[in-house]
Design brief:
Elements lengths: L7 E3 L6 E3 L8 H17 L3 H21 L3 E5 L9 E9 L9 H8 L6 E12 L2 E12 L8 E13 L2 E10 L4 H14 L1 E3 L1
Antiparallel strand pairs: 1-9, 2-3, 3-4, 4-8, 5-6, 6-7, 7-8
Length: about 200
């Protein structure tokens, strides 16, 4: 495998997903308004409330993903009237002085570590993908806990893919728990099979 700096990483964009501009300099408000029009289509394109709400959500999604600096990020919007169903991000992890060699075991420890906000213990299983050996981890955690102790349950399905001994890829799909968990895990499984690394 090539070093990360010399590599090109490919991920198929699923139908009903829009690529978020996380690595390009654009006016997010203008980009989001145009992306919302494309997602809504001509049938509902004359509904300003729908377009406005979706544009706001896409702009916020792009700004949120930009903070993490992924290689690519997608907003999955199969039903525009319901807004973003899931976020999909593909990021790189580089070996460092603390962890000089990237291994699947290291990725499993990183992705499957329980946290104070874990809703249930992470579930991990080893996989083999075209891009390299991998670990698949499902996790649920609580975010935005209020004074009443209640919060939003978020679920994730992630793949840690060892691309090389010096770097790895993390494919992460996240969504609110009331969404279709099995469908979104299947989507993540399909996308993981499409990850390719070339020079």
């Amino acid at each position: 495998m090539p070093e990360f700096a010399a590599a090109t990483v490919h991920l198929r964009t699923p139908e009903d997903a829009v690529a978020l501009p996380v690595r390009t300099s654009v006016d997010l408000a203008a980009w989001a308004a145009e992306a919302a029009r494309r997602l809504v289509g001509p049938d509902d394109g004359d509904e300003p409330k729908l377009l406005g709400a979706l544009a706001t959500e896409l702009r916020e999604a792009a700004a949120d993903s930009r903070e993490r600096g992924p290689i690519t990020a997608l907003s999955y919007v199969p039903e525009p009237r319901l807004g973003e169903l899931a976020r999909i991000e593909l990021s790189a992890l580089l070996a460092d002085d603390t962890y000089p060699t990237m291994t699947v075991e290291l990725l499993q420890r990183y992705l499957a570590a329980p946290t104070p906000v874990s809703y249930r213990p992470p579930e991990a299983e080893l996989r083999t993908l075209p891009a390299g050996p991998a670990v698949r981890v499902r996790h649920a955690y609580v975010q935005d806990v209020g004074r009443d102790g209640l919060g939003t349950v978020m679920e994730t399905c992630a793949y840690g893919i060892r691309a090389d001994e010096k770097w790895a890829l993390v494919l992460l799909t996240s969504w609110q728990a009331q969404a279709g968990t099995d469908v979104l895990c299947e989507l993540t499984d399909e996308l993981a099979e499409t990850v390719r690394v070339t020079v």
